[in-house]
Amino acid sequence: MLLQAFHWYTPANGGHWRRLEQQASALAQAGITALWLPPAGKGLAGANDVGYGIYDPYDLGEFDQRGGVATKYGTRADFLAAAAACRGAGLQIYADAVFNHLMGADAEEEFNATPHDPQNRFQPLGDQRPIRGWTHYSYPARAGAHSTMQWHWWHFDAVDYNSLEPGLQAVWRIEGKAFDDDVDLERGNYDYLMGCDLDIDHPEVRDALKHWGTWMLDTVGLDGFRLDAIKHISGDFFPDWIAHVEAHAGRELFVVGEYWTTNLDTLRWYASRSGGRIHLFDAPLHHNFHVASRQGSGYDLRRLLDGTLMRELPQLAVTLVENHDTQPLQALESVVEPWFKPLAYAFILLRREGYPCLFLPDYEGARYRDRGRDGQQHDVELVSHRWILDRLLAARRDHAYGEQRDWLDHPNCIGWTRAGTPAHPRGLAVLMSNGDAGSKWMATGKANATYVDITEHRRESIRSNGDGWAEFSCPAGSLSVWVESGA
Questions:
Q1: DSSP category for residue 204
Q2: Any catalytic annotation for residue 460?
Q3: Per the count of CB atoms within 10 A, which of 56, 215, 390, 443 is most buried?
Q4: Distance between CA atoms of residues 155 and 201, nearest Å
């Protein structure tokens, strides 16, 4: 059970690592087994950078760069203390690896490049010519500590700014470089995303990324990585990189990649290209949750698994309800409405398919203010679902084992049962409705067993008959989770 232990608007007060250190034991006791940590390196915006505007991946809050020493989340010492506390509590920790680009260079360099239309990378906007770009990363404050690598224009494929022609909006493809073919095909070719785009085919770039991976393993003590923006990076790189860091670690590591698309065929293609070495976030399932939450009783719940990794590639699926990109006011905003979140979390936590990921604001709530797509400032409050999530996590820990039988057979009321195992003998039954109150006869695999609703929506207990069947119920627009009580 994975927790995304941050969000886009995590307070920029330098205290996040210390909070995680203090919360580690409680998170483990709640049933969480692993944490996806935010990018820990120094970003372009210094203490205000979420971490994806990566400037120096080796500066974990140790050097006076980009306006200060600490990152948004704290200092290097804070980070290492939090990691140690998490390991001590039995939590695995996964680092966020940002390999697509660098931002905030220390100096400009001159080189030749060709401008391309940002909306169609196959369309040149003119001939190759000299340009001046911010492409030299020398890290003077770090002065070679941890890595002596300095980045220059020849380490990149493209940039999006030319000081000699500041008014021209273009993707400047650097002389001798080509956009990678093995990437997403949006905008013709989506190799370029932002900043200084790493030339992943350059041997010095590959070596630098491998060195960072092994350095993070040695420095922090990791159990895996979340790979950012992999749809923009040549797919043949990561199996080689994973093999390198796993050989260094001497063990298998968990790796999940962010290839954000609702196209199942594309995700299948990427899974095949990576040889099954990389888990993938189930963006299609999130999209189904989003649509279901907006349509209410008009959505056919039998379609929740349509086009999803959870159904088609469950062994590689990391299932989620929200993340930092889909939350309100963010680039991929596609909110799952609050009423539906308990249903969605039950769907990823209590079924056998996939590796579920919980989003921190859904657990503890959040408040923030930012500019929306309409250009106006908006105040956002994300409500905490901790009460029900704690119960779902406990049900997952104690009851969600063994054979699963599905009753995904009604547009507004679906359910399933888990029979348990010898090690975890007490099973469960889940029933949910997006319309009126519902009921359904379901087989539990247990004769004459007693079940109670941990959501407390139903106060009465239910007892299965001699054949193991029982009629379970749930309230309108909600769910009930019936666990075997042992009584």
A1: H
A2: no
A3: 56
A4: 9
Q: Which of 180, 228, 312, 353 is catalytic?
A: 228
Q: Which of 155, 173, 198 is a domain's end point?
A: 198
pLDDT in tens, 88-111: 999 999 999 999 999 999 999 999
- In the residue annotation, 325 being an active-site residue is answered as no
Q: Is the pLDDT of residue 351 over 60?
A: yes
The H or E element that residue 123 is part of is: strand 120-124
- pLDDT, tens only, 67-95: 999 999 999 999 999 999 999 999 999 99
Q: Contact 24/92 with Cβ under 8 angstroms?
A: no
Q: Please state, in angstroms and rounded to a whole number, the distance separating the CA atoms of residues 289 and 286.
A: 5
Q: At what angle do helices 341-349 and 283-295 cross, to 10 degrees?
A: 150
Structure tokens that stand for 59 in this block: 């500066």
Residue 393 identity: L
**Whose CA is closest to 433, among 462, 405, 410?**
410
Q: Which two tokens stand for residue 289?
A: 């949750």
**CA distances in angstroms from 223 to 34, 86, 226, 238, 249, listed in the order given:** 9, 11, 11, 17, 9
Catalytic residue (choose from 108, 109, 182, 258)? 258
331 shares a domain with 227 = yes
In which element (H, E) is residue 215 found?
Answer: helix 203-220
Cα separation of 1 and 348, whole Å?
Answer: 10
* Torsion angle defined by CA atoms of residues 387, 288, 437 and 357, in that order, rounded to the nearest 10 degrees: -20
Backbone angles phi, psi at 469, to 5 degrees: -100, 150
Domain boundary among 394, 424, 447: 394
pLDDT in tens, 119-161: 999 999 999 999 999 999 999 999 999 999 999 999 999 999 9
pTM: 0.96
Q: Identify the domain containing residue 209 by its residue range.
A: 2-100+203-394
Q: Do the beta carbons of residue 233 and residue 200 sit within 8 Å?
A: yes
Query: Cα dihedral sign for 302, 457, 342, 22?
Result: negative
